[in-house]
């Protein structure tokens, strides 16, 4: 009760003091506004990158394995991978036949070709040759229309399924299904459109790709492309067992003697997470350190102005002490004042940051948001900055000698 | 029992370079409840130092100070603050009101530090302001009040905690003589109502109102006289204040 009465008195004094020195308060608070703004925008940015990464990684399918000549992430010597034997399209069938823990296996070939529909063109789209199994052996299953069938795949029919970006480029205002596009002159009829995946790995998601039957791919674009195999475990829980089984089958296919190392890599989206984790942590650390520095400078500004405020109000401190204010009361009064300054700055900084993030989201078409945790933390941090930087000045005020303070003019 | 019991109080100020100033040199003084005492002396006589010690703003270098029978000389800052808050009402020459607060809030202030709840605080402050004749000025800020009115606010602030003593330091020093008289009249009324009043002044005319005059010189008590009723300057008992 007593404590809160004094906090309330501190609040009233603080607000009166802020009113009395508006310009000074605004300028001082500016430091905190900028500091909190920088920190929260940085935090929102980091949050966005992390979420985008998670989403991108899940687009690969968390239970999908990518068997390839090359590993996605490795610190080892490039040459050991370079010298591995190339993959063959037939592996997919062989794996499929022997596996018990895999629900779908698909071979994948990629190449880059130009696309055209009427007078619209698109350069550098990724053309993927695969089988009907792909739709079940990948992370993206949301499709408008349909994927090609086993008959269409084995017959090498001129049909295709396109990604969202391809659709936007070639068919900005119309339906794509049923239309015939040309991939380097070869006609392909669109059967379906994949839902937009977005994320950081635009190249590797379905967005920028055109999927066509493998046979058609080989006859039109040659068979000497980089080949890999996508395989999906029958369930997430059995992913590890499925991976072991896959590894065994691949060793058999590739005729690797017992004891020799694998000459292939089984890549999983989790690997990306493992590789990205430390990077994201470093970005977060450096980003928050640099922006935190600006908040620190803001805190110094608060400390400075609080020292001025204490000196200016020496007489007032003397009066308050004479009529019975204890050290604690005076300390509280100035701490509350510093905390209020910082809190106001923090809230304004948060509002500005909120608007900045909103605008950035609009302009760059990102689904960036201000996480609630950041709002709470930023508010607490600004309060803490106020209390920390206000402490020294407040302590000086609290331990003033009442006789000296009363004599001050 | 005496409210104030000073025994052999000394106060030495360290001025640095091994230079010391003896402001008080063995003061012994007792003041009983409902006394009206003037402490007089030329500047440099030590009366301000004595007032600071009596008012618990400062502690003596040596000697014993009993306030209502309690040792004050060995108290720490917080205890002294509590005594100042509850037992002593200060009235200063320069009023020392908070410029940004209105009369009511100025008077409320000691009650805030005493932890009195808001509603009771406002009621008591308002009543005390009425008591000193400022019932219609409670929401005026100091710069909207005359000197005499400001001093009345200060007196209300001193009275509001119902302290054991009222300690007034040259309360009329910044007022014209007519307003000064009014303030002295108010003090007399307060004394009549049972308050203990200690007046620090260098003006003989002001001291004439008191019932007892203590004169200081060079840090010592030069004289301590009770003023017979015939010599007091007494206002005719007038209208209630």
**Secondary structure: number of strands of chain B:** 10
Strand order of the largest sheet of chain A: 2-3-8-5-7-6
Distance between the termini of chain A: 34 Å
- How many whole angstroms does the radius of gyration of chain B measure? 18 Å
* Tertiary shape of chain A: elongated
Helix content of chain A: 55-70%
Written account of the structure:
The complex is a heterodimer of chains A (409) and B (241). Chain A is α+β, with helices and mostly antiparallel strands. Chain A contains 13 helices and ten strands. The mean pLDDT of chain A is 87. Chain B has helices at residues 47-54, 77-87, 103-114, 118-131, 147-159, 177-192, 204-207; strands at 2-14, 20-32, 36-40, 62-67, 70-71, 88-91, 165-169, 196-201, 212-217, 220-226. In chain B, the strands form two sheets. Chain B has a six-stranded mixed beta sheet, with helices on both faces. Chain B has a four-stranded antiparallel beta sheet with strand order 2-1-4-5, covered by helices on one side. The A-B interface holds A 1-2, 5-6, 9, 16-17, 20, 315-316, 318-329, 402-403, 406 and B 52, 55, 57-58, 77-78, 81-82, 84-86, 90, 92, 96-98, 100-101, 109-110, 112-115, 117-118, 157, 161.
SSE inventory with pairings:
The complex is a heterodimer of chains A (409) and B (241).
Chain A: H1 2-20, H2 22-59, E1 64-68, H3 78-82, H4 91-98, E2 102-117, E3 120-130, E4 143-145, H5 150-154, E5 159-162, H6 164-170, E6 180-183, E7 186-194, E8 209-213, H7 214-221, E9 227-233, H8 239-253, E10 265-267, H9 269-312, H10 314-322, H11 327-364, H12 372-398, H13 402-407
Parallel strand pairs in A: 3-8, 5-7
Antiparallel strand pairs in A: 1-9, 1-10, 2-3, 2-6, 2-9, 4-7, 5-8, 6-7
Chain B: E1 2-14, E2 20-32, E3 36-40, H1 47-54, E4 62-67, E5 70-71, H2 77-87, E6 88-91, H3 103-114, H4 118-131, H5 147-159, E7 165-169, H6 177-192, E8 196-201, H7 204-207, E9 212-217, E10 220-226
Parallel strand pairs in B: 3-8, 3-9, 6-7, 7-8
Antiparallel strand pairs in B: 1-2, 1-4, 4-5, 9-10
């Amino acid at each position: 009760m007593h404590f809160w009465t004094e906090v309330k008195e501190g609040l009233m004094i603080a607000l009166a003091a802020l009113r009395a020195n508006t310009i000074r308060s605004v300028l001082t608070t500016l430091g905190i506004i900028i500091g909190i703004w920088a920190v929260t925008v940085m935090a929102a940015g980091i949050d966005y990158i992390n979420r985008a990464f998670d989403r991108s990684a899940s687009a690969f399918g968390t239970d999908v394995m990518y068997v390839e000549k090359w590993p996605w992430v490795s610190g080892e010597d490039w040459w050991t991978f370079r010298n591995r034997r190339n993959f063959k399209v037939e592996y997919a069938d062989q794996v499929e036949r022997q596996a018990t823990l895999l629900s779908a296996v698909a071979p994948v070939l990629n190449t880059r070709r130009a696309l055209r529909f009427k007078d619209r063109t698109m350069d550098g789209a990724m053309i993927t040759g695969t089988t009907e199994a792909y739709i079940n052996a990948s992370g993206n299953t949301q499709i408008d229309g349909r994927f090609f069938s086993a008959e269409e795949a084995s017959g090498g029919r001129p049909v295709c399924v396109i990604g969202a970006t391809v659709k936007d480029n070639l068919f900005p205002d119309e339906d794509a299904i049923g239309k015939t596009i040309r991939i380097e002159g070869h006609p392909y009829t669109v059967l379906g459109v994949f839902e937009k995946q977005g994320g950081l790995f635009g190249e590797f998601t379905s967005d920028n790709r055109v999927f066509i039957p493998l046979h058609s791919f080989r006859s039109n674009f040659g068979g000497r492309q980089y080949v890999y195999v996508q395989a999906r475990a029958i369930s997430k829980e059995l992913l590890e067992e499925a991976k072991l089984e896959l590894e065994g089958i691949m060793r058999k296919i590739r005729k690797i003697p017992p004891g020799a190392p694998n000459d292939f890599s089984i890549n999983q989206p989790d690997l990306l997470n493992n590789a990205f984790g430390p990077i994201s942590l470093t970005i977060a650390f450096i980003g928050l350190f640099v922006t935190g520095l600006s908040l620190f400078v803001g805190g110094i500004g608060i400390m400075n102005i609080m020292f001025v405020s204490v000196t200016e109000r020496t007489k007032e401190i003397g009066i308050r002490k004479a009529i019975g204010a204890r050290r604690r009361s005076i300390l509280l009064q100035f701490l509350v004042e510093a905390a209020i300054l910082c809190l106001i700055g923090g809230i304004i900084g948060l509002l500005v940051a909120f608007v900045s993030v909103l605008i950035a989201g609009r302009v760059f078409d990102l689904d960036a948001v201000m996480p609630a945790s950041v709002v709470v933390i930023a508010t607490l941090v600004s309060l803490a900055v106020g209390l920390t930087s206000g402490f020294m000045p407040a302590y000086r005020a609290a331990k003033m000698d009442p006789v000296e303070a009363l004599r001050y003019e | 029992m005496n409210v104030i019991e000073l025994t052999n109080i000394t106060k030495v100020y360290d001025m640095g370079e091994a230079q010391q100033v003896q402001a008080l040199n063995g003061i012994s003084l007792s003041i009983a409840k409902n006394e009206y005492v003037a402490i007089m002396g030329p500047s440099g006589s030590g009366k301000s130092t004595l007032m600071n010690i009596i008012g618990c703003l400062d502690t003596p270098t040596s000697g014993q100070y009993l306030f209502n029978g309690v040792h004050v000389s060995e108290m720490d800052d917080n205890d002294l603050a509590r005594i100042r808050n509850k037992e002593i009402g200060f009235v200063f020459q320069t009023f020392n009101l908070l410029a940004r607060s209105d009369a009511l809030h100025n008077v409320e202030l000691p009650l805030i530090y005493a932890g009195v709840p808001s509603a009771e605080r406002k009621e008591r402050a308002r009543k005390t302001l009425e008591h000193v004749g400022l019932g219609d000025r409670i929401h005026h800020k100091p710069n909207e009040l005359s000197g005499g009115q400001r001093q009345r606010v200060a007196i209300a602030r001193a009275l509001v905690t119902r302290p054991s003593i009222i300690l007034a330091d040259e309360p009329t020093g910044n007022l014209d003589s007519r307003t000064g008289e009014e303030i002295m009249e108010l003090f007399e009324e307060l004394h009549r109502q049972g308050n203990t009043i200690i007046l620090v002044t260098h003006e003989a005319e002001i001291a004439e109102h008191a019932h007892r005059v203590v004169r200081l010189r060079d840090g010592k008590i030069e004289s301590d006289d009770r003023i017979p009723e015939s010599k007091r300057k007494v206002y005719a008992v007038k209208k209630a204040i």
